[in-house]
Design brief:
With 329 residues, this protein is an alpha/beta fold. It has twelve helices and twelve strands. It has helices at 3-24, 27-33, 38-45, 49-61, 90-103, 106-112, 126-150, 168-176, 191-201, 237-250, 272-284, 293-302; strands at residues 36-37, 65-68, 71-74, 158-162, 181-186, 207-211, 225-229, 256-261, 263-264, 291-292, 306-312, 320-325. It has a seven-stranded mixed beta sheet, with helices on both faces.
Length: 329
């Protein structure tokens, strides 16, 4: 990489900050509803007119807004950043905005090691909770359908979606297999979001919603397929061992555990997104990480799972799949 390219890469934080601020102020949603001048928008949102004008002009240079005289409106590229767009990406942008502060501590953490005492999810502001769950839905909308299409769901009768959020993967799996029913297990603040989405998708009668904390509470025991979708990276190895043991006890004999996450190669540099995400876990969790296949396989076998295998190597964001089986009695 040339020196100029490195500088350009580093300067990208400025562009990111502009878009994050615009999302935080909900500018894209307001400009989706109608075009507006900076003065009008500043009055509505109680912002500084001069500062807002400079921000909006910069968004024009990014191709997210168009400017006609004194008025601004969204471009086609900017429309998905509006809250009411059917395929909105705004929740994910707001989630990234929440990560800004934690990433600012990376230097300190590399010097001294993780020292986090994370605020429990249930104690976070409601808007932060919804941003995170919404972000997971944005990331999973397309990939969940792809995963459901790639995995043979025909043998299974009941899915346990652990930490299933608003049910993105449950929806995809149940739509792929009309005979499948499901259980979404997540924190009590998340369950209403799952209920809202199940009702919208017409799946409420096929899905049981169970509130609980997978670090402390037991799982329902009538499922033959358990899904850990983008869960293990937030945990330390010890937390994953405990989680695997609980899942083993809950699954019916012959049941399967399906893990979707990054699976790193032995050098821990591929996939590159996984190496970067390991830093995201370093700055945001006390013990989370991305794991190699062997680092996933051995604890599963310690929990008495058998036939642990990588069934999808993955080319995208967290689209690797590891499958493990609970033996028959």
């Amino acid at each position: 990489m040339e020196t100029g390219d490195v500088i350009a890469e580093v300067r990208n934080f400025m562009k990111s900050r502009v878009i994050l601020t615009a999302a935080e102020l909900n500018l894209f949603t307001h400009l989706h509803e109608k075009s507006s001048s900076a003065k009008e928008l500043a009055g509505t949102l109680k912002l500084n007119t001069r500062a807002l004008t400079r921000l909006l002009d910069t968004l024009v240079t990014f191709g997210l807004l168009k400017k006609h005289g004194t008025h601004y409106r969204l471009t086609n590229q900017g429309v998905p950043l509006a809250a009411r767009h059917q395929d909105t990406t705004l929740p994910f942008i707001l989630h990234l905005n929440n990560l800004w502060d934690s990433w600012s501590h990376l230097t300190e953490i590399v010097k001294n090691g993780p020292h986090l005492k994370p605020k429990p999810f249930l104690e976070k502001a409601e808007q932060d909770q919804r941003a995170f769950i919404g972000a997971m839905h944005v990331v999973g909308r397309k990939l969940s359908r792809e995963i459901a299409g790639a995995y043979d769901l025909k043998p299974f009768k009941r899915l346990l979606d652990i930490g299933g959020g608003s049910g993105t993967y449950t929806i995809a799996f149940l739509k792929k297999n009309p005979m499948l029913t499901g259980v979404i297990f997540d924190l009590k603040n998340v369950i209403p979001m799952a209920e809202e989405r199940m009702n919208a998708e017409g799946l409420a009668k096929r899905v049981e919603l169970v509130a609980g904390d997978f670090y402390h509470d037991d799982f329902p025991r009538d499922c033959d397929l358990a899904l850990l979708s983008a869960i293990i990276h937030q945990n330390s190895p010890e937390q994953n061992r405990a989680l695997y043991r609980k899942i083993f006890l809950a699954l019916l004999p012959g049941g399967r555990l399906l893990i979707r996450d990054f699976v790193m190669d032995e050098s821990r540099t591929h996939p590159p997104e996984g190496a970067l995400f390991a830093l995201n876990m370093l700055v945001n969790t006390p013990g989370g990480d991305t794991y190699t296949f062997q680092e996933i396989k051995h604890p599963l076998e310690e929990a008495e799972f058998v036939e642990v295998k990588m069934i999808r190597t993955g080319q995208q964001m967290m689209d690797c799949l590891v499958e493990a089986k609970k033996p028959l009695e």
